[in-house]
């Protein structure tokens, strides 16, 4: 155990997880690569949990941070803040939500917490619909709408949460149905559930479940849900903390795969927009955002420095069509990984969109999740010079791959080759 690891264990809580048997201290990064304290170089396919969205040490972002820090670092939302207003204007337009209002927070957890506050206040109900296998954060309220036992440490809750089917396509009672019948069955389940409850405030859902292992429903499920929700006056919160900003390649927001009946009432975002800076936020139509009848501010949400970083990062992303790059390079990467998986009896499924890819591992010859294999592949990939993540529902048995969106074809090929060797070594 290293001296820094010993010091970490002496002061950090036991539940603060670290990857790897020999935890890494990352000291610096550039582009799609990072270096550890021993000088080892790694291709980064996880980006600080999908947060270093564009690139490590992106010059445009570091310059914006330095220049803003040289003027003023902090003021709070009690004062006018030009970078915050400029970013809010851009996000309101990009969101697709009419008459949108934007509130900035410091994390995705806080963004979802705010969305739940808005929905419950607007509807006068503390009942929330959520998806099984979901993850929405680590605060008291967001843990209570997280449908993943591994990330929900208490059953105590300020909310009454009811879980519906649909977040996982290839497991569960509807897995064998066609896409159309899967949607019909999930809608029927939702209809039946609403027939037994009081009036829920909202459905909160990730278009692609992040911590849950990059699972998703067929396109159109949430549009079909929306028809039912609208009849009951129930709001739709789209948790875009991991799916936003074009990472899926096909769409700028995950909800756009389900856009037939319009945008969500509330959209939450975080992670990648700041390219590593602590930024989150909520977008909602004015009627919903303005429903609170008490004062509220954010001391650190909308900080001039984080807003400057986000503006520079968003401009870079749009100017360089990183959504298109995620679609092209991500499409190549997922095909390479499916080719690799075909040679491994431990791989149940390779799934995902753009640069958001999951590899689910099972015990060969069964459908039983194999978290030990996922941990072994994680270690073997690190030894090969590649950093990836892991997640999954009932067991943590899914490898999570989400590189910065500037990933090149050569880097995608390199990462796929390292993963092939890691799967072979761990198998």
Report on the architecture of this protein.
With 427 residues, the chain is α/β, with parallel strands linked by helices. 37% of the residues lie in helices and 16% in strands. The chain is built from 13 helices and 15 strands. The strands form three sheets. Strands 4-10-9-8-7-5-6 form a seven-stranded mixed beta sheet, with helices on both faces. The protein has a four-stranded mixed beta sheet with strand order 1-2-3-13. Helix 3 packs antiparallel against helix 10 (304-319), helix 7 packs parallel to helix 8 (221-232) and helix 12 (371-383) crosses helix 13 (409-426). It is globular. The protein starts with a helix and ends with a helix. The model has no long low-confidence stretch (mean pLDDT 96).
List the helices and strands and how they pair.
Layout: H1 3-11, E1 26-30, E2 33-36, E3 41-44, H2 47-50, H3 59-69, H4 82-95, E4 100-105, H5 108-123, E5 127-131, H6 140-143, E6 160-164, H7 179-194, E7 202-205, H8 221-232, E8 235-239, E9 266-269, E10 280-285, H9 286-289, H10 304-319, H11 322-341, E11 347-353, E12 356-361, H12 371-383, E13 386-387, E14 389-391, E15 398-401, H13 409-426
Parallel strand pairs: 3-13, 5-6, 5-7, 7-8, 8-9
Antiparallel strand pairs: 1-2, 2-3, 4-10, 9-10, 11-12, 12-15, 14-15
Helix pairs in contact: 3-10, 4-10, 7-8, 11-13, 12-13
